[in-house]
Amino acid sequence: MALIELENINKTYNNGQPLHVLKGIDLQIEKGEFVSIMGASGSGKSTLLNILGILDNYDTGTYHLDGKLIKDLSEKQAAQYRNQMIGFIFQSFNLIGFKTAVENVELPLYYQGVSRKERHTRAMEYLEKMGLTQWATHFPNEMSGGQRQRVAIARALITSPSIILADEPTGALDSKTSVEVMQLLKELNKNDGMTIIVVTHESGVANEADKIIHIKDGIIGNIEENRQHTAWSGPMVK
Amino acid sequence: MRFDRDTLRELLDSILRNRSRSILTGFGVFWGVFMLMLLVGGGKGLKELMEKNFEGFAQNTCIVFANTTSQPYMGFRKGRTWNMTYTDVDRVRNSVAELETVTPLVSEWGKSASRGTFTAQGSLKGVMPDYCMIETPKLIYGRYINDMDISGERKVCVMGKKLYAQLFPEGGDPCGQRISIDGIYYQVIGVDANEGNMSIQGRADETFTIPITTLRKAYNTGDVIHLLCFTAKEGIAMSDVIPRVRSILSHAHYIAPNDRQAMELINTQLIFGIVDNLFRGINFLIWLIGVGTLLAGGIGVSNIMMVSVRERTSEIGIRRAIGATPRMILSQIISESVLLTMVSGLAGIVFSVGILAVVELAMTEDGILKAAFQVPFWTAFGAALLLTVLGVLAGLAPSLRAMRIKPVDAMRDE
Question: Is some CB atom of chain B closer than 8 A to the CB atom of A57?
């Protein structure tokens, strides 16, 4: 069984006019894959990401994550699954402003009830991996965008999740740091075998992945194998 | 919910992040508690000061004065002067079984006393031994008037505190020494330290108390008594007894039964009742104002927490996304609210206790506390408990709102 198995996922938003966003998504992602989901805005890629991240419910179909059926979970159960199985990387970093870098990285472990000391040790480990040891006690607003995103990646990794979900991870970064962050994600995938799913609308960013899933109008258009990273020839970020 | 240093740190982080806002919010609660404690302590102290005035005064006493009549009756004209006599004492005592003590009082005003070169001004009170049931003396030296003094018409006196200070400036036990009042020498047998401001026929501390028989003989007062004092037995309402006493005395002295002016009966129970009610009213106001202020502070906390939750939508969303359960968010917001109310409330308690301690210090004279202003421990404890409840209530609505924040909201908030 694949790590992620989506079978005929349907999702309709009922805000005034019913909006059928996902119209039967079938998708399988294996462990260790580096996948990007591409689509224009309104294509349903964010909704798909929310469902993958157990942040949102779907109407019909089934979603198995790591062999577990993710359907109609209680808030508590969903929170625990998110905490243990998923690492999030957001476009706007979403670090907590009044906490230092190391405290931000520690936070998921705090909700697991890990002791303060161990939390700190492990958080420092991951910060070191990101090359941010000397920035550990700095607050997010004292760091550059690239550094902040690296803190966010460390936070995503600290619980050793099954998958990393990145929502436009380079959306708020300049081209140079975008390349660095994508490089970092690639290395994580290659060296640690981490399963990574990146949602983006930039072809250059999508090109960094081994597989590009095009989504259009709520259905999967085509799945492009991209082992050679030849899907895009221009610069990574415009 | 587990609570350790970690959780506390997490809470403090959130509260201290917006320092000035937290302080201003906390001030509302602080002021509420401070006012409540101060008012409670102040009210208690004032009541004690007030009660000090009634010290040594039987609370169920009635005093009868004779006055000029206001109505013609039985052939007598109006405006007639009449007096009570010793016979009236027995009359009342024998006719009204519900009375505990019935005792006469004769007094002489503005007497000067001397001992060697020391002089003092005071009034004389002639009493029976059982007068101590009406005004309880606080004897610091010697004894009170007894039956032997009465029957022997002894020239002995118990003196008030102020007179003692003036006639015996050197202090010490004055018993056995002699003082002169109006040229008559009296042997001092006791000193009464009572300083209640409520007393009959002059302040207790400026009064020489002597046997009624001695006074009668020395000042030729004859059969006349100036006051008739009586107390009712326990469980008897004074107001039930008074009309009977009035009718007995009216009948004996040919006074119109409805002539209120001719005979004044002062019911201290009534006065004490009024004072009691007054303080009950003051107490009620104190609690109303105090609790009201406190409640306003609590609502302030709730309001600010509401704003804070709204402002922290993104933060709470992030927390939810990375694994906080709704329950954890709920308990965090409530705990923040409780912590804020508790810390500022306890500061209020400490501050008010400090102020009251200073007040007590100011009220202390010669190392003796005049009245205790300090709030009792259990009141303070109750206030602390109330604060916790208030904190939980204040945090309830904001935390419920926080709980409804979905992790997706964090990402929308860009």
Answer: no
DSSP designation for B70: S
* Interhelix angle B238-252/B268-311, nearest 10 degrees: 160
Contacting B residues, span 329-368, partner chain A, CB-CB under 8 Å: none
The verdict on a CB contact (< 8 Å) between A82 and B325 is no
Compute how many other C-beta atoms are within 10 angstroms of the C-beta atom of residue A23: 15
Cβ neighbours of A139 in B, within 8 Å = none
CA A227 to chain B, closest CA, distance in angstroms equals: 31
Considering only CA atoms, which of B102, B148, B155, B146 is closest in space to residue B124? B155
**Mean pLDDT calculated for residue range B25-35:** 88
Nearest CA to B143 out of B105, B179, B190 is that of: B190
Whether B345 shows a pLDDT value over 70: the answer reads yes
pLDDT at A128: 92
Confidence of residue A101 (pLDDT cuts 50, 70, 90): very high
Q: Which residue of B has its CA nearest to A54?
A: B321
Amino acid at position B374, single letter: Q
* Residue pair B160/B122 in contact by the 8 Å Cβ criterion: yes
ipTM: 0.87
Contact across the interface for B408 and A113, Cβ inside 8 Å: no
CB contact at 8 A, B338 and B391 = yes
Give residue-wise pLDDT tens across range B212-266.
999 999 999 999 999 999 998 888 888 889 999 999 999 999 999 988 899 988 8
| A107: contact with B, CB 8 A cutoff | yes
Q: How many whole angstroms from its chain centre is CA B160?
A: 24
Phi, psi angle pair for A198, to nearest 5°: -115, 130
Q: What is the CA radius of gyration of chain B?
A: 34
Interface of B with A in 288-327 (CB under 8 A): 314-315, 317-327
Please indicate whether, in this complex, the C-beta atoms of B323 and A55 are within 8 angstroms of each other. no
Condensed to tens digits (0 to 9), the pLDDT of residues B72-124 reads: 998 999 899 999 999 999 999 999 999 999 999 999 988 999 999 999 999 99
pLDDT in tens, A117-156: 999 999 999 999 888 999 999 999 999 988 999 999 999 9
| Start-to-end Cα distance in chain A | 38
CB < 8 Å to A92, chain B: 411, 414
| C-alpha distance from A95 to closest chain B C-alpha (Å) | 8
* pTM (2 d.p.): 0.71
Q: What span, in angstroms and rounded, lies between the C-alpha atoms of A223 and A231?
A: 12
What average pLDDT does the segment B143-167 reach? Answer: 93
Query: By CB neighbour count within 10 A (0-12 exposed, 13-18 middle, 19+ buried), where does B413 fall?
Result: middle
SS3 percent helix, strand, coil of chain B, rounded to 5, is 55, 20, 25
Across the interface, whether the CB atoms of A108 and B323 are under 8 A apart is answered yes
